[in-house]
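Issue: ligand-bound run for adenosine monophosphate - logging full I/O for the record.

Environment: standard queue, default settings, no custom constraints.

Inputs:
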Amino acid sequence: MKVLLIGSGGREHALAWKLAASPLLDRLYAAPGNPGIAQEAEIIDLKVADHAAVVAFCRANKIDLVVVGPEAPLVAGLADDLDAARIRVFGPKRAAAQLEGSKSFTKQLCAAHNIPTARFAEFRDADAARKHVREHGAPIVLKADGLHAGKGVIVAMTMDEALAGIDQVFAMGPEAPVVVEEFLEGEEASFFCLVDGETVAPLASAQDHKRVFDGDQGPNTGGMGAYSPAPVMTPALEARALEEIVQPTARALAAAGTPYRGVLYAGLILTREGPKLIEYNVRFGDPECQVLMPRLKDDLLTLILATCDGTLDQVSVRWHDTHAITVVLAARGYPGAYESGSEIRGLERAGEIEGVTIFHAGTKRAGDGLVAAGGRVLNVTATGRTLQEAQARAYQAVDRIDWPEGFCRRDIGWRALSK
Ligand code: AMP
Ligand code: GLY
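Outputs:
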């Protein structure tokens, strides 16, 4: 089977690494790719935003399956264009990708189908939003519509922050309504499922670390590290999330004639009343994917094909009895301004530690060497029989990497380890 993988981050390196291990795989291509993905796939020069070019490449090279890593091409309708050309694609079409592309769409769907989420109101007018915020008080949460790479949400702890935040969120997407919602208290967890339209196959849970510094301090990032499983997500809570949140969502989209096909990532807050949905993502998490793939016992390509072909009811998903952790090495300054081009050494020695795999995110080849070329640069990933063991291995590997211009959090996994 010939597969084309779309994307260039640590998530896509983890997907490429797992796809490359499949007995069904004959050839793996990737675009835009990165130096880590290049170890597993043939990197091709293809503009992903040019859907006609992607279709033409697939036809010319007899591609059997396109796996889309990030959300932007899905929200832009790449799956629609591939499907129209009868090319198999893993990832939802534009209509279903609104689950991530539009906060307002998801809140309306939750309201119509009784799916537990924060109480909310929508505003097209900043003055009306201000009035609502004054009436409800802080803490309160403001969300701009559309994709904002995780920066479209303001969790305002005070009234001053909330009032200042209103101008900010209205400036981000003036054409779409702003969602103002109730602040929920509880631990967050990421819950991943495969959805083939009808059947929902739960995968696993993970926990991200969104803040840039130790102790969950500093600004939000795309994610500084993750681990799986998340012990806070007990089997009972997983069953509730499946029954009360993910299954009704899949049924609602199928009934609307816009069935969801792909991986669905539910961002949950585990409140005292049970799991509530904070957001959906229409893709694997980054860096959560990097801790799911090393734990997945079954063949990823088989699971993806079952998702695309509507036969998820016939497969089981099995996991290794291990814990996995990933530590993000980022360029100094991230998530603000940072410099690219500094040299990274020592990856080979770091990768020799038992259970360790290093996934590339923002790296670039420069001659014989490797240099930083992004904010999040490497994902040092380790498995172990316990989370402690996985964590120790990951940081041992981090310490073998020679990159003075980089930094990482030193406390990835703390929530689970403190239990
Ligand atoms: P989102 O982009 O929707 O995932 O929001 C980013 C972050 O804001 C989440 O990971 C939460 O930490 C926080 N957040 C979003 N919505 C709420 C809410 N209703 N209550 C408390 N925190 C929230
Ligand atoms: N790690 C958070 C995300 O992928 O959205």
